[in-house]
Amino acid sequence: MDRSGKGILFLTRSAMIAAIYVVLTVFISAFNLASGVIQIRISEALTILPVFTNAAVPGLFAGCLISNLITGCAPFDVVFGSIATLIGAVGTYALRKKSPAIAALPPIISNTVIIPFVLKFVYDFPGSIPFFMLTVGAGEVISCGILGVALYSALTPVKNRLFGSSSPENSTSPDENASMENSRVSGDGSSSDDV
Fold first, then answer.
1. Which residue positions in the chain have pLDDT lower than 70?
2. What is the pLDDT of residue 190?
3. Distance from C-alpha of 113 to C-alpha of 107, rounded to nearest angstrom
4. Topology of 3-184 in CATH?
């Protein structure tokens, strides 16, 4: 695949991840769990996706930003909430070669540290920063630590089909890619690759 094709694929994957993040956030906001003192934003389970593709990093950031705008978050929440998700996604990408439980830690930590200050100083919710850290942290453990790791387990068997062999976990050299491509071409010259 040439550079422009890879760029289009990258943007498409990012956009799809952003769209899924938005849909899940809007859905869970109907139950008043997308924001507030007690939040279990199930869309944060997607923060495990940078283990499979670096396209997830901008996709998660854009998805969180759009979700926060759609669900009516305050401007500082839109900014700092999206930054917390971006930090988490970058951290997950950096830890992509570790176990999924370790890779899920950056979004848990970034949201547990950043969001309580938003709740206290932007929304002026009653309660203390440590209490908000406990509630946000618990929600992030559920979303990222439990649901995210479950998502990792569900996607691992189909990761090459969804994210291609050039995903961060499956990086190969150009020679290996050419060799794999030659082995996938059938006798009539058609490719069996339908990714």
1. 165-195
2. 45
3. 10
4. Arp2/3 complex 21 kDa subunit ARPC3 (1.10.1760)
